[in-house]
């Protein structure tokens, strides 16, 4: 069974609990309530979305546009979370989710939302080789600086930025 | 009567000026301009204070004002409105006394009665009015409405005939008269009236053209014809109706209805080839998924007798003749030809020793390859023990699991058919035939399901799927095709449901937990997990789980309702209210909205919740709310009497009348009414202990049990008191809410009808026996096939000392189910009551004779001791006899001294709970019974031992139960 054909759906106050379930199943850290409260506030459905397969949410991506700290006036797309339930991995769902955000960026590059965007960025825990392969090899993200001792409660505590 | 008699009408007729004013009064009343009407009436009354008709009209207006005020304002000014109504009645009565010869006065008197739903009195008043003015169309029409509402069918027909005679050129009057003849059972007459009406029409009238109204009228006439008796075989009506269908084809817009009628007639007349043609026409129109048409088609193929055809026509859901009764081999072959696939039919047909491949070409599966119904029906045609069945169900399950169809488990459960003997209707000219027939019933009890061939087969299949899918994501039958990752998930889910069906709760939970871990975003899994927990005895946890599932999707009303229901069953009323109010109207109190929406399921569950908490007043209040809804349904009928005929939807109107006739027999009404009866009987038996008791079913307890229960109840009372404070506060805050709303919108602040007597104090003060008697009488009249209704009728009658009525109830129960435990314990009770009654209180000599000759038959002419002993033996002979029956017999053994308490206990313990009707509820009852033995005898130690064993059995069966 190769790629699964998925549909996208928006995240809102009525179904944000499903995002929580997906993230809890996918990540070793748990996000605080304010993250989900933010997500419940009708985010841009092109930046934050569920991937549905056969009627159920099996993955989700949450991204935002944020200013680059040392470059006034410039900004970047930051991938906050990307998770696909374990049973549904290796069917191209994660790739489709990232691609859909990238496509959105491409199509709106000169719009008010993206015209100051220079880069796309995310952080990965150093032990997460699957993720590093995923971003590095499939999407050509470049490795950035290593932040040591970022995570307090999980091991290893470092993360890499791309 | 001389003219100076005041009752003959003073000042009649009025002078010109006043008579004009009077006309205005009537006009203003009709246009609901009550204030103006009142003013004009008062002007007349100033000059003629004793003018009867004006007094009456004034009363009518005052009454209407009180009603509309009540509707707008709620009950805040209840007393004030009561006074207004009294004033209205007095005015009308006075007016009537002043002018008894005025049809207006009598008409008004009737209208007043009608507005208080006193229809019988209203009809009498109308009749008086008509005696004075026999041709008053308005009064006749009003009376006709009341007569059909009250089902005074003769009177209705007479009234409508008078109207038709007065106004023979109105279509509505012709139709209503025809209908009135029809409801009186004279179908031929009704058809004749319709013919006469058609004869009055011009040739090019719109009534002869193809449009909705002429179509409905034609089909109504057809229906009437088909109900006509006649001919030697009683089928003349059907023949006429079939012929008539051809005549009306050109005006019919409801083509499907037309075809279905034709199909039904053809089958009943045995015209099977024509019936098949009709089926094909229906299939072509798109009815391939309609099991009703398939059922008919199969009857035509099998050339079933008329009784069977009619039986199949009434089947619901996926029922066809194949799920009605066992098929013979020959019948199987015939049907397989029609429903088999080209490829698999051959195998099946060969297996049946017939190899005519030409027939397979007719196969529906080939003509309609995308029809799900045809594939599903095919499964029901195969013998469950055949290989073909196994491979077909294998394919069917695989397809559905790959698709991820959550309802598959439920779908498959309709194949757990068991044979049952039923008495046969004696039909025309058939005397020597067998008196019983074999019919299928659905296995529902876990014990039966577990041992059912189809269930075992499916379990085997699904287990093999899971093993294969878990190791390499393929089905065992096809190792090359890798399936989607959710396939294993749905296989687990199905297996979990199969466990649920067999009451294997712990195993079910293990699998559903895997599902939740696999895909935590699917609401269905939380729902099943909650069901498993509830079945397994942990309602609190069940409520938590389903509520977590609800949280996944706040827009899913179904899961929200399920969560509400489970919370109520867990006794968490406040949370439940909070959940359901997510889907009620935003403004105002959700309870009001739920009442206005007649949300019966919620009110029943809430009432059960109060009852379990021992708050019988509130509980009664909610059950009575449900009963009120049904009264409203009945009342609502009024609006249709005129509307339906005007719209010519006569077929539907006939169905409505029938529905209303059977309204009090509907299950939800029955549930509410039965609980009302039980509560009243409980209060009758234990007066003055309203809140102390936790369960209304104390009637069967021994004194020691009661003592114990009271101790528990005392503790509960304390808890209740503190809970009451909370509730009180809540009420106060609600009031604040409504008070603060007053400024914004007046309507919002209206007190609602359900706030009256919200804790049910008034209901608790009613005459318990009288109330119980009233509802028991309604139930046995309208739900005579409901065994629990007769059981309660017995309970009520025996308390009223009506031994004959009690005996009748026992006979009725026996006719419904001679093996019912409720019947058994009541026969024992009756016998004991009979022997303990003193001679002088035995009532009438005649009834004594009847009881003396009839009652022993219920015990098969045995003594009570022998009767109980036989029951004990019967239980020992039937390894599956139900737990409630065992408890009932065990109780009887002790009360009749047939056996010792250890004999009685072993009756329960020996079954190891592998018998019918084992649930947390029935186990709790068994434990209660065993508790009652504790202090009774010397062998307390042994009993403790037994209770320990029972506890073990219960925990093995219901692993999540905590309190038994």
How do the strands and helices of this protein lay out in sequence?
The complex is a heterodimer of chains A (162) and B (964).
Chain A: E1 7-10, H1 16-26, H2 33-40, E2 48-53, E3 56-67, E4 75-84, H3 93-107, E5 117-125, H4 129-139, E6 146-147, E7 159-161
Chain B: H1 16-30, H2 34-47, H3 52-73, H4 78-98, H5 103-115, H6 119-132, H7 137-149, H8 153-166, H9 171-183, H10 187-199, H11 212-226, H12 236-248, H13 255-268, H14 272-284, H15 291-302, H16 306-313, H17 321-324, H18 329-339, H19 342-351, H20 357-360, H21 364-367, H22 372-381, H23 387-403, H24 408-413, E1 417-423, E2 436-442, H25 446-450, H26 453-472, H27 486-501, H28 505-518, H29 523-535, H30 539-552, H31 557-569, H32 573-580, H33 590-596, H34 600-613, H35 616-636, H36 638-646, H37 650-661, H38 667-685, H39 703-741, H40 761-764, H41 768-782, H42 787-799, H43 803-816, H44 821-836, H45 845-858, H46 864-877, H47 883-895, H48 901-909, H49 920-933, H50 940-957
Antiparallel strand pairs in B: 1-2
Helix pairs in contact in B: 1-2, 1-3, 2-3, 3-4, 3-5, 4-5, 5-6, 6-7, 7-8, 8-9, 9-10, 11-12, 12-13, 13-14, 13-15, 14-15, 15-16, 18-22, 23-26, 26-27, 27-28, 27-29, 28-29, 29-30, 30-31, 31-32, 31-34, 34-35, 35-38, 38-41, 38-42, 41-42, 42-43, 42-44, 43-44, 43-45, 44-47, 46-47, 47-48, 47-49, ...
Can you offer a commentary on this structure?
The complex is a heterodimer of chains A (162) and B (964). Chain A has 162 residues and is α+β, with helices and mostly antiparallel strands. Chain A is 28% helix and 28% strand. In chain A, helix 1 crosses helix 2. By secondary structure, chain B is an all-alpha fold. Helix content of chain B is 69%, strand content 1%. Chain B has a two-stranded antiparallel ribbon with strand order 1-2. At the A-B interface, helix 1 and strand 3 of A face helix 27 of B.
- Overall helicity of chain A: 25-40%
Order of helices and strands of chain A: EHHEEEHEHEE
* Uncertain stretches of chain B: 1-6, 345-361, 691-701, 723-750
Shape designation of chain A: globular
- Numbering strands along the chain, what is their spatial order in the largest sheet of chain B? 1-2
Strand order of the largest sheet of chain A: 1-2-3-4-5-7-6
Beta-strand content estimate of chain B: under 5%
In percent terms, what proportion of residues of chain A is strand?
Answer: 25-35%
Overall structural class of chain A, as computed from helix and strand content, comes to alpha+beta
Count of helix runs of chain B: 50
Stretches with pLDDT under 50, minimum 5 residues of chain A = none
End-to-end Cα distance of chain B, whole Å, is 79 Å
Mean pLDDT of chain B: 87
């Amino acid at each position: 069974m190769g790629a699964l054909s998925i549909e996208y759906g928006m995240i809102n106050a009525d179904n944000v609990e499903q995002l929580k379930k997906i993230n809890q199943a996918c990540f070793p850290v748990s996000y605080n309530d304010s993250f989900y409260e933010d997500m419940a506030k009708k985010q841009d459905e092109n930046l934050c979305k569920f991937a549905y397969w056969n009627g159920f949410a099996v993955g989700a991506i949450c991204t935002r546009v944020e200013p680059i700290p040392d470059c006034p006036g410039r900004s970047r797309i930051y991938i906050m979370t990307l998770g696909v339930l374990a049973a549904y991995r290796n069917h191209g769902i994660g790739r489709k989710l990232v691609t859909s955000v990238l496509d959105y960026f491409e199509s709106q590059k000169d719009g008010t939302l993206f015209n100051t965007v220079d880069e796309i960025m995310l952080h990965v825990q150093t032990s997460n080789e699957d993720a590093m392969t995923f971003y590095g090899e499939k999407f050509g993200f470049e490795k950035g600086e290593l932040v040591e001792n970022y995570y307090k409660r999980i091991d290893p505590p470092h993360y890499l930025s791309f | 009567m001389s003219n100076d008699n005041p009752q003959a009408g003073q000042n009649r007729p009025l002078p010109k000026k006043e008579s004009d004013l009077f006309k205005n009064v009537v006009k203003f009343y009709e246009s609901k301009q009550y204030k103006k009407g009142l003013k004009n009436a008062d002007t007349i009354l100033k000059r003629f204070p004793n003018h009867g008709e004006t007094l009456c009209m004034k009363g009518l207006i005052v009454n209407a004002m009180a009603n509309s005020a009540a509707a707008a304002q709620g009950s805040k000014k209840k007393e004030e409105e009561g006074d207004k109504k009294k004033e209205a009645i007095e005015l009308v009565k006075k007016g009537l006394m002043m002018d008894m010869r005025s049809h207006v006065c009598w008409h008004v008197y009737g209208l007043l009665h009608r507005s208080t739903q006193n229809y019988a009195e209203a009809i009498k008043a109308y009749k008086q009015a008509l005696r004075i003015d026999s041709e008053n169309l308005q009064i006749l029409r009003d009376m006709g409405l009341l007569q059909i509402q009250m089902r005074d069918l003769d009177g209705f027909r007479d009234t409508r005939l008078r109207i038709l005679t007065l106004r023979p050129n109105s279509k509505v009057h012709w139709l209503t008269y025809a209908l009135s003849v029809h409801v009186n059972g004279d179908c031929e007459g009704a058809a004749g009236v319709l013919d006469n009406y058609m004869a009055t029409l011009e040739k090019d009238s719109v009534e002869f053209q193809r449009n909705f109204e002429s179509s409905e009228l034609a089909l109504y006439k057809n229906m009437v014809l088909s109900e006509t008796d006649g001919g030697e075989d009683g089928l003349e009506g059907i023949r006429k109706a079939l012929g008539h269908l051809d005549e009306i084809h050109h005006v019919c817009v409801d083509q499907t209805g037309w075809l279905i009628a034709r199909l039904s007639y053809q089958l009943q007349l045995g015209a099977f080839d024509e019936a098949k043609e009709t089926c094909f026409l229906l299939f072509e129109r798109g009815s391939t998924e309609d099991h009703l048409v398939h059922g008919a088609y199969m009857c035509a193929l099998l050339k079933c007798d008329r009784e069977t055809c009619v039986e199949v026509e009434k089947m619901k859901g996926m029922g066809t003749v194949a799920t009605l009764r066992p098929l013979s081999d020959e019948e199987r072959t015939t049907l397989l030809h029609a429903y088999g696939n080209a490829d698999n039919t051959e195998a099946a047909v060969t297996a049946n020793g017939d190899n005519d491949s030409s027939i397979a070409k007719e196969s529906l599966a080939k003509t309609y390859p995308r029809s799900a119904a045809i594939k599903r029906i095919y499964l029901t045609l195969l013998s469950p023990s055949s290989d073909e069945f196994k491979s077909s169900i294998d394919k069917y399950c695989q397809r559905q699991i790959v698709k991820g169809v959550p309802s598959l488990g439920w779908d498959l459960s309709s194949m757990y058919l068991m044979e049952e003997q039923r008495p046969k209707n004696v039909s025309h000219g058939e005397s020597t035939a067998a008196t019983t027939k074999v019919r299928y019933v659905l296995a529902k009890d876990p014990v039966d399901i577990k041992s059912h061939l189809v269930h075992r087969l499916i379990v085997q299949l699904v287990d093999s799927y899971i093993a294969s899918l878990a190791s390499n994501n393929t089905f065992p039958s096809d190792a090359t095709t890798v399936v989607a990752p959710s396939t294993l998930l749905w296989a687990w889910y199905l297996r979990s449901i199969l466990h649920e069906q067999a009451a294997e709760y712990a195993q079910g939970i293990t699998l559903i937990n895997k599902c939740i871990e696999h895909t935590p975003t699917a609401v269905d899994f939380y729902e099943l997990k909650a069901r498993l927990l509830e079945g397994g005895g942990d309602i609190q946890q069940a409520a938590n789980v389903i509520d977590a599932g609800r949280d996944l999707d706040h827009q899913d009303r179904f899961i929200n309702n399920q969560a509400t229901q489970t919370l109520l069953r867990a006794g968490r009323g406040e949370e439940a209210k909070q959940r359901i109010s997510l889907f009620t109207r935003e403004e105002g109190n959700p309870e009001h909205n739920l009442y206005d929406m007649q949300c019966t399921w919620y009110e029943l569950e809430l009432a059960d919740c109060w009852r379990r908490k021992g708050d019988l007043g509130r509980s009664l209040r909610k059950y009575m709310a449900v009963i009120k809804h049904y009264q409203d349904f009945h009342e609502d009928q009024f609006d249709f009497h005129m509307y339906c005929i005007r719209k010519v939807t006569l077929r539907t109107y006939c169905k409505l009348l029938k529905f209303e006739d059977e309204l009090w027999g509907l299950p939800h009404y029955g549930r509410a009414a039965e609980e009302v009866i039980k509560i009243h009987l409980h209060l009758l038996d234990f007066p003055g202990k309203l809140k102390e008791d936790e369960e209304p079913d104390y009637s069967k307890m021994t004194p020691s049990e009661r003592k114990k229960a009271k101790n528990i109840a005392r503790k509960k009372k304390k808890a209740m008191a503190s809970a009451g404070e909370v509730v009180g506060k809540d009420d106060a805050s609600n009031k604040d809410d409504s008070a603060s709303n007053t400024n914004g919108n007046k309507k919002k602040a209206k007190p609602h009808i359900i706030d009256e007597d919200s804790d049910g104090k008034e209901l608790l003060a009613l005459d318990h026996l009288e109330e119980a008697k009233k509802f028991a009488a309604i139930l046995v009249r309208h739900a005579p096939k409901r065994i629990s209704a007769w059981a309660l009728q017995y309970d009520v009658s025996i308390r009223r000392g009506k031994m004959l009525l009690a005996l009748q109830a026992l006979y009725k129960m026996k006719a419904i189910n001679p093996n019912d435990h409720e019947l058994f314990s009541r026969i024992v009770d009756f016998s004991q009551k009979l022997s303990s009654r003193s001679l002088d209180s035995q009532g009438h000599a005649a009834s004594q004779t009847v009881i003396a000759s009839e009652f022993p038959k219920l015990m098969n002419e045995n003594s009570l001791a022998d009767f109980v002993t036989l029951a004990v033996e019967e239980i020992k002979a039937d390894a599956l006899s139900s737990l409630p029956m065992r408890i009932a017999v065990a109780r009887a053994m002790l009360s009749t001294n047939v056996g010792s308490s250890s004999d009685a206990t072993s009756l329960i313990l020996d079954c190891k709970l592998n018998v019918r009707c084992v649930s947390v509820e029935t186990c709790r009852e068994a434990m209660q019974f065993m508790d009652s033995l504790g202090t009774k005898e010397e062998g307390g130690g042994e009993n403790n031992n037994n209770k320990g064993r029972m506890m073990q059995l219960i925990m093995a069966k219901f692993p999540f139960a905590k309190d038994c």
